[in-house]
Amino acid sequence: MLIARLIADMDGVETRLDAAMKACAAADMPVAMGGMLDFCSDVLQLSLPHGDGRQLAEILTEYFGDCDLLISDHEIEVPRLFVSDMDSTMIGQECIDELADFAGLKDKVAAITERAMQGELDFGSALKERVGLLEGLEESAIHRCLAERIRPVDGARTLVATLRSKGCRTVLVTGGFHHFADPIAEDLGFERVVGNRLGVAGGKLTGLLAGPVSDASTKLATLEEERAQLGEGARVLATGDGANDIPMIEAADYGIAYRAKPRARDAANGRINSVHLTAILRLFGIPESEWVEDFAAG
Question: Which fold has domain 78-298?
Answer without folding.
Answer: Rossmann fold (3.40.50)
